[in-house]
Structure formats: structure tokens, C-alpha cells
Amino acid sequence: MRLIEKVWFYQHKAKYWLVPLLLPLSLLFFLLSQLRRVLFKLGFKQSVKLDCPVIIVGNIGVGGNGKTPVVVYLVKLAQQLGFRPGVISRGYGGNAPSYPYLLNEQSTAIEAGDEPMLIFKRCNVPVCVGSDRVASAKTLIKQGCNIIISDDGLQHYRLQRDKEIIVIDNKRLFGNGLLLPAGPLRETTTRLNSADLLIFNGEGKPKKVVAASTLPSLSMELGATKLCNLVSGQQITVNDFMQLHTMACNAIAGIGAPERFFASLQKLGFTLNAQQGFFDHHSFMLDDFSQYPDTIPLIMTEKDAVKCREFAKENWWYLPVDAVFSSKHQQQIEVLLSSCRKEMNSDR
């Protein structure tokens, strides 16, 4: 974990000199971001309204909050409700031949980015990446999509949205509450007031967020029941895996909050001989795994797996996770999605 993240989330003693040093930059960041948003509100910067509903799944801080499982959940629910969903994403870490880039069966994480590749493989729906989210969304509409789900993009105000869902880490919340770079926030917590739904990722009841105490909020947990082999594609339940293989394993994670992944493995019953966290969106190479023996299973996240398949070994596995909601909270999300259909029909 980087020193700055320890300062943001874990009150590292370096905060006493690092935060005062960065506060002037945070003030500048605040002024520029507020000016930009005001310019969009007053019409000096033009925003675009699409011909179909747009749902933003984002956060007000830096990554690691659980947005991607929520996007996958929304895609599948939208399909059940009769929508033809498509997903747009920035494609962070990717280097596509051109933009907007529409993913296909030959696409790689190097081109598209790890999260868009995960969504494409898991959901089998059109996914388009690029910094111009309006252009990406229009590309998906041409593909026949009638609802657009945006993986991140809460601050991309050029694209008008019908619904905003903000995902919050129920453990880390907003760190020290400061804006970048002195803190982890892209916007202040007052921004929560304009969202349509808050989703708190993690065990326990949603924390009380003063700025948004009256907003609809619900809890989400990440559930895992199986492991998938990177080489053979074999899928096996966690219980069967432990009986056939071993409870001892090594683990790596290149996500926003690696410690959450390691904790989930331990909760499932695994004993971690070694664990290693990498920076979010890390570009893996075979040399990153030289210290891990072939005799013990190596388990990684699904997001990491899309970047490691080309050089994976037979004892490498990934743990896919799903967003899990109570039946009451499932109904809340279904109502939100269904309202998009009503609004779409009323606009015609």
C-alpha cells in the first residue's frame, strides 16, 4: 500500500506533514472542479442528453469501492426486465487502437482495460470504452442498446444521466474526508445529496452519512461460491476445492483494496501462506509470480485474471464475486431500473 493511501485511510503518522503540504493543492482542485460543474449547470459547457436512459455507477472517491460488481448486477437485472443494456467505461489502463473502442471476442485487457474486459466476459453485452463517454454511449445505441450503464463517470458531466448510484466502502467510507490529493475524495460529501441511491459495500448496516441521511441507501456484500482455473476454465465450488486440493494457498490482488480480497479468502476458510497486493490496474508479467511455487494454489481476483491468462500456470485460480442484496434491497434496485422505462416512454 502506498504511503499516501495509509495517510488517507489509516491515519498514518505521515499525515502531520503530508496533509498540510498538500492542502493548497486540494483547495485548487476544489475550486477548479466546482467551476467546471457550475459551467455545466449554467450551460456555458454543453452536456448531451441521449435517446435512452443512462445510469451512472460511480463514487466520490478513488477506486476500490465495488462499482464493477454493481455494474454486472445491474446489467443482468436490466436484461431480466427486458432492456438491452450496454456498458461504457473509461477503460483505464487500456491502450486501444482507436476510440471509442467497442470490445469484441479478440479484445484484450491491454487494449480495453481490466474492468471493461471483465464486464464483457461476464455479461456478454456490448461494452465500449473511451474518455468521451458520449461517443461511447452513441456507439452502443447504434448496436441496439436501449439503456446505458456507465462504469464510473460520476464526474463526467458532459453526459447527462437519468439515475446516479454512488457506491461507498462501508469500512473505509471517505477516509480523512479531504479532497485530492490531501485526501481520497474527488468531490465533497455534499455531492451525495444529488444521488438517486447509495450502496454501502461491506458487512453491517450502512453508516450514517450526515450529508445524505435522507437519501435511499442499502447494503451490499460480495458473495463468492466457486473458483475458476485460468488455464482449463474448470469451475469448482469453494468447498469441493478445499477437499480436492488444500486450504492453504497463496494470494495476489491488484485492486483498489487488496486487503478486502485477502480477508474474504480467509473468511471462506483458506489459509494464506503468502499474500501480495499490487497497485490497482497493475499490468502483470510472469516475473511478478516467480516467488510462488507450483505446489500450492495461487488465487487472484477475476479482475486480475483477465490480464494473466496468457502466461497462467495450471495451479492458478480466480475467485469471481457477485453483488449480493437482501430481497428488500433487490426490489429497491428493480424499482429504480423500472422507473427508467417509464421515463423513457414519457419522453416519446
Task: Note down, in words, how this protein is organized.
With 348 residues, the protein is an alpha/beta fold. Among the domains are: 42-83 and 146-221 and 324-342, Rossmann fold; 225-320. The protein has helices at residues 3-10, 15-42, 67-80, 109-112, 114-123, 133-142, 238-244, 258-268, 302-305, 327-346, and strands at 54-58, 85-89, 101-102, 127-129, 147-151, 163-169, 197-201, 217-223, 226-229, 235-237, 248-253, 271-277, 298-301, 316-319, 322-324. The strands form two sheets. It has a nine-stranded mixed sheet, sandwiched between helices. α9 links the parallel β13 (298-301) and β14 (316-319). It is globular. The N and C termini lie far apart (50 Å). The mean pLDDT is 90.
